[in-house]
Amino acid sequence: MGKLKVAIVSPYPPSKGTLNEYAFNLVQNFKAKEDIEELIILTDEIDEPYKEETQIGNCLVKIVPTWKFNSYTNAFKIVKAIKKHKVDTVLFNIQFLSFGDKKIAGALGLLGPALTRLSGVPVITLLHNITETVDYKSAGITESSFMIFIYNIIGTVLTSLLLMSNMLAVTMPKYVRILEKKYKASNVALVPHGSFIVPPLPTESSNTKPKKIMTFGKFGTYKKVEEMIEAVEIVRARTNEELEIVIAGTDNPNVKGYLKSVEEKYSHVPQISFTGYVEEEDVEGIFRDSTVVVFPYTSTTGSSGVLHQAGSYGKAVVLPNIGDLKELIEEEGYMGSYFQPSDVDSLANAIEKLVVDEAYRKELEGKNYAAAASLPMSDIADWYLLHFEALTGKSYVEKKIKVLDNNLKKGTSEEAMFI
Question: Is residue 141 scored above 70 in pLDDT?
């Protein structure tokens, strides 16, 4: 049975590019697979040095800085590196702004999957969002109706190019339906997001003092923290609970300086902390120390990695009652205390319920942990491995297909099976 040499195109730690954590955790599972002999991580160039190549069992892992954020030549550099390293297949782990927040540079970078396939190398593209569901105004991209019209046209062209991949994987059922209907695509597959790690369910009580109300992410566009701060202030006044507000993360690249302005505006609020960027090794501590994880979103652009992390650490969550995120929760078995977006009182009620009702909080903690445990990243890595080998013509143990299929069926609905 032939072994695979796989390239992964993605930001990768210590790069702080979007989806770096997803790539890191996917690689951790890929390198444990006996059918992969070498992983080439084609990542972005940064000022910090990347780790030297490592040998994990029979798998050699090489990190190769190849492209630069906002460069116009990224797609060509990526294809050149792919040919140089003579890989069997390629996985692009991307979203629409992966290669640049300048419109032309970002768009040109998205030519990578099509050019890779045209070069003769099989490619799977994991696309974490699609333009058809992006709210350009709330995402901080543009307020102009004319520009939204133009971006939708450009988005349609770019999506058509991304569909030139041998397979386009997305993480939400809604995306599959849109792509198949609008683009008449037959090479779209639904791949559940998967949980990065699934540690043992915590046995200690989350009823610590002060109770930490935490949010995690990149803020300033459709993720804003002002209403969360104000909601916690309301809960404090109603309950006399000792609550600490923890805002973990950084500005969205489109809204630089956002968190600094929030920190200044709410400097009078006690027990509030801004952690800045959370390094990979510190993520577990941030989640474990939290009582409740809040998602102060007004819209969504895809599956939520933070939700899967919260579930992995057995945390109760407060979620906006909006379509995409609610659909994901129902598909994958997560539960949350819901609030209406942009409604401070509704958010306060949702937080208060979890703060004062320990039994309800414990119920959500257990449900979310079970949902995370049902879809570990190791199963998602197996899914990709099956398709890598199908695309390259290399054989694979048939029983693994049955095991993987059974595991995924336990964790998601029939609609979320292989499509």
Answer: no
Are both 4-194+376-416 and 211-374 of the same fold? yes
Query: Which amino acid type is present at position 11?
Result: P
* CATH match for 4-194+376-416 among 3.40.50.2000, 3.40.47.10, 3.40.50.2300, 3.40.720.10: 3.40.50.2000
SS3 361: helix
pLDDT-derived band at 247 (thresholds 50, 70, 90) equals very high
- Say whether pLDDT at 407 is over 60: no
User: Is domain 211-374 classified as CATH 3.40.50.2000?
Assistant: yes
pTM given for the model: 0.73
Angle CA 188–190–195, to nearest 5:
145
3-12, 111-120, 282-291: least confident range: 282-291
CA pair distance 173, 323, nearest whole angstrom: 12
Which of these, 9, 13, 2, 17, lies nearest to 124 by C-alpha position? 9
**Residue holding tokens 């450009």?**
154
Supply φ then ψ for residue 146, to 5 degrees.
-65, -45
| Predicted local distance difference test score (pLDDT) of residue 102 | 86
Confidence (pLDDT) at 378: 83
Distance CA 270, CA 158 (A): 47
Q: What pLDDT digit, counting tens, does each position of 316-375 carry?
A: 999 998 866 677 677 778 889 999 988 999 999 999 999 999 999 999 998 888 888 877
**C-alpha distance from residue 239 to each of 112, 230, 232, 272, 383 (Å):** 54, 14, 10, 18, 47
Lookup: tokens for 58: 């029979």
Annotated domain spans of the chain: 4-194+376-416, 211-374
Asked if residue 186 lies in contact with residue 301, where contact means CB atoms within 8 angstroms, the answer is: no
**Average pLDDT score over the chain:** 85
| DSSP H helices in 278-397 | 283-288, 305-312, 323-332, 344-356, 358-374, 377-392
Q: Where are the alpha helices (DSSP H) in 98-163?
A: 103-109, 112-118, 145-162
